[in-house]
Amino acid sequence: MLLGLAAALTAAGLYGVAAVLQASGARQVARASGLDPRVLVRILRQPPAAAALVLMLTGFLLHLLSVRLVPLFLAQAGIAVSLVVTALLAVFRFGERLSRTECVSVGAVIAGLVLLSASSGEVGNGDGGSIPWALFAAIVVIAALAWVAGRRRGPSSTAALGLLAGFGYAIVGISARLLPDFQPLHLVASPATWSLGIGGSLAFFLYSLALQRGAVTLATTPMIVTQTVTPAAVGVLLLGDGVRPGWAVAAAVGFVVTVAAATALVRFEGAHQGASPAAAPHPTNG
């Protein structure tokens, strides 16, 4: 249990740093018009974004270890600590000041996630059944909704793309849990391997677009919440992950606090950005 949690927290630190580096790279490239996949190539040519990709892949290996050792409930809650790392680094890197409301909201998100993690029980042994195929359907839905969100402008587009990126990363977490083993032939034959790769690539792309369009906190908060809560729910409801006896109420409270605080943070940051156009980044051609 401790090794799995330590792996998740270390991965969270790497993800938090990677988010800021990814934002640095994304903001050096002209904003994409809609969902232009070519922008991802241009972003990855920027050294900060390339470094972010390396950190994220390293973090993923630790995340993979975590989801195999502890319930998705706990592994994803540990990963969510990256929100704090990202928020603090964004203050220093981009001068994104965190108001008292935002600080309280970030703290409440973490408190809710702590409750969720404390409520986790044993790792389930469900094989996932048809879940991998449902994940492919979810990827199609995410891409369709992203096409709509990508055509919008302003804070709502930033938050929506971050939210959809979070669902993409949720697919990564669920797929990692469903991998049969690490033998190459089994991995190639497993639908979970392909849903993991496609979902992760789509999520990285959408998050890059979100970071181009608005504040790091506005893009990251909905992403973190969806990539935390969605796999946790799948783990408990479909994969047999347990909730500690007597902790069902705490788990419910943690869920409500996390979602409510994240929603408040997104609404506050979105209103702030909408009222102050200068707050939005202005990337240059790269």
Commentary on this structure:
By secondary structure, the chain is mainly alpha-helical. The longest helix has 28 residues, at 248-275. The chain has helices at residues 2-26, 38-44, 47-69, 72-79, 82-94, 100-118, 131-150, 155-178, 184-189, 191-213, 216-238, 248-275. It is built from twelve helices and no strands.
| Percent range of helical residues | over 70%
Number of helices: 12
* Average pLDDT metric: 81
Amino-to-carboxy terminus distance: 45 Å
Largest sheet, if any? none
Task: Note the beta-strand portion.
Answer: under 5%
Q: What does the radius of gyration come to? A: 18 Å
User: Unreliable runs, pLDDT <50, ≥5 residues?
Assistant: 275-286
**Structural class of the helices, strands and pairings?**
mainly alpha
The dominant shape is: globular
State the oligomer: single chain
Helices and strands, in order, run as HHHHHHHHHHHH
Number of beta-strand segments: 0
Short description:
By secondary structure, this protein is mainly α. It is 77% helix and 0% strand.
